[in-house]
Amino acid sequence: MACQLVAAIPLPWNAKLVAVARVLQVTGICLCFSHDRVLECRCLHDLVQFESMQAIGHLLTGAIHDWREIAERMPQPKAS
């Protein structure tokens, strides 16, 4: 499956690797979900860890320039 994706995606090589890795990761999450193993899913764990670290990095980078924007960048709690 990965080889077919790499061949079909019209992107530069490094972008292909990122895209194929993400597709394989999502495929793994779907397989875990279909087998009721979401809590044990390493693909989901890695995705959440990477995305949360990246989001924290974006928050800190933005905060360096203007600390007042931190409140605007944080998700607001939903009103009940």
Beta-strand residue percentage: under 5%
What is the approximate shape? flat
SSE pattern, N- to C-terminal: HHHH
Radius of gyration: 17 Å
Mean pLDDT: 79
Secondary-structure content class: mainly alpha
Total number of helices: 4
Stretches where pLDDT falls below 50 for ≥5 residues? none
**Main β sheet profile:** none
**What is the rounded distance between the termini?**
44 Å
SSE map:
Layout: H1 2-8, H2 13-34, H3 42-65, H4 70-73
Helix pairs in contact: 2-3
Core attributes:
flat, 80 residues, 4 helices, mainly alpha
Report on this structure.
The protein is 71% helix and 0% strand. It is flat. The chain is mainly α. Helix 2 crosses helix 3. It has one domain.
Entry summary:
The chain has 80 residues and is mostly helical.
